[in-house]
């Protein structure tokens, strides 16, 4: 049974570049390569604005960690509303297949032993090979994950799944716990964000070169699957940003201008405007605008109804003339 999504707003979430995140206290948490101490190893450290390391973080200022064997490095670093650190990436599983990896650290910089297996969740959502690219943690310890899904033919598709607070895939969401983009063309995830109202937005670039388009897939409370909310094409994509503005998600170019929505979404906007007009009170309609037709009445029937009153005066005149002629003939016969 699909999960009806309940989204949680996180006003304290702060994220910067892929390997850095800023705390509410003005410190910076960052990931550093650790090729000297262990293979495929990384260091997590917290620094003050002046660049000095915080000795109260981790073990004397740093925490060493590994995503797993044959990994491509961390994809992103996020902080949640209570200061926990989350790292997303991928590694090979015991069967030699790729697994999505999500790691959680305490606000003090240590691996969180209460999460998954000693702070590390390695999953194959819906039994598919996957790489975690980004995540949006919730206060209850669960997290939404955006990543790449690799099918049997080796093709990569954008995917979305949810991990429960124990680090396991929530199989109630979408199809066995995984939503996979089925559109035409390759996609690249450019943004994964959460709005003040709790809705999620996944920003994708589809296609290459001049034919590329930008898409916004939105997931709101009560939905069990993300919906395509917007598509834009043309120029301005190189430095496009996904922002929440005026109560909706929008793509902005490098100058902060809204990128124009593609033509196929225009009929949807027109239909919405027509529906709003139909529901408006009569006083809000233009004086020269006829009232909307009743549901189920065609335009032709409406036009016929508008012209139906012209024949009543003529019919009454004909009836009167016929009655006058009949009465006159009757009087002539009596005289005869």
From TrEMBL:
Keyword S-adenosyl-L-methionine: no
Pfam families (UniProt xref): DUF5122
Database matches in InterPro entries: Delta_60_rpt
Keyword Disulfide bond: no
Transmembrane region(s): 310-327
Secretion signal, residue range per the UniProt entry: 1-16
Keyword vocabulary terms for this entry: Membrane, Signal, Transmembrane, Transmembrane helix
Residues in coiled coil: none
Protein name, per record: Delta-60 repeat domain-containing protein
Species of the source: Roseateles oligotrophus
């Amino acid at each position: 049974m699909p999960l009806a999504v309940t989204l949680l707003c996180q006003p304290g979430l702060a994220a910067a570049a892929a390997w850095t995140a800023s705390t509410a206290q003005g410190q910076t948490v960052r990931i550093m390569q650790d090729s000297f101490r262990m293979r495929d190893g990384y260091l997590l450290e917290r620094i003050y604005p002046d660049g000095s390391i915080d000795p109260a973080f981790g073990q004397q200022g740093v925490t060493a960690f590994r995503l797993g064997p044959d990994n491509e490095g961390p994809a992103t670093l996020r902080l949640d509303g209570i200061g926990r650190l989350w790292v997303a990436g991928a590694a090979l599983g015991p069967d030699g297949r790729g697994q999505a990896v999500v790691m959680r650290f305490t606000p003090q910089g240590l691996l969180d032993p209460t999460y998954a297996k000693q702070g590390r969740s390695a999953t194959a959502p819906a039994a598919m090979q996957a790489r975690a690219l980004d995540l949006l943690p919730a206060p209850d310890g669960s997290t939404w994950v955006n990543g790449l899904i690799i099918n049997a033919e080796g093709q990569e598709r954008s995917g979305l799944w949810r991990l429960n607070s124990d680090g396991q895939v929530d199989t109630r969401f979408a199809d066995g716990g995984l939503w996979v983009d089925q559109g035409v063309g390759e996609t690249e995830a450019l943004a994964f964000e959460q709005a003040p109202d709790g809705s999620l937005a996944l920003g994708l670039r589809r296609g290459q070169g001049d034919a590329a388009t930008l898409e916004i897939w939105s997931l709101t409370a009560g939905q069990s699957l993300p919906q395509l909310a917007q598509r834009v094409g043309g120029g301005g994509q190189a430095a496009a940003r996904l922002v929440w503005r005026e109560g909706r998600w929008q793509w902005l170019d490098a100058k902060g201008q809204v990128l124009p929505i593609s033509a196929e979404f225009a009929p949807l906007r027109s239909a919405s405007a027509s529906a709003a007009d139909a529901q408006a009170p009569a006083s809000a309609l233009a004086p020269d605008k006829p009232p909307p037709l009743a549901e189920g009445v065609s335009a032709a029937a409406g036009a016929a109804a508008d012209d139906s009153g012209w024949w009543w005066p003529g019919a009454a005149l004909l009836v009167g003339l016929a009655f006058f002629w009949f009465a006159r003939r009757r009087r002539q016969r009596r005289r005869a």
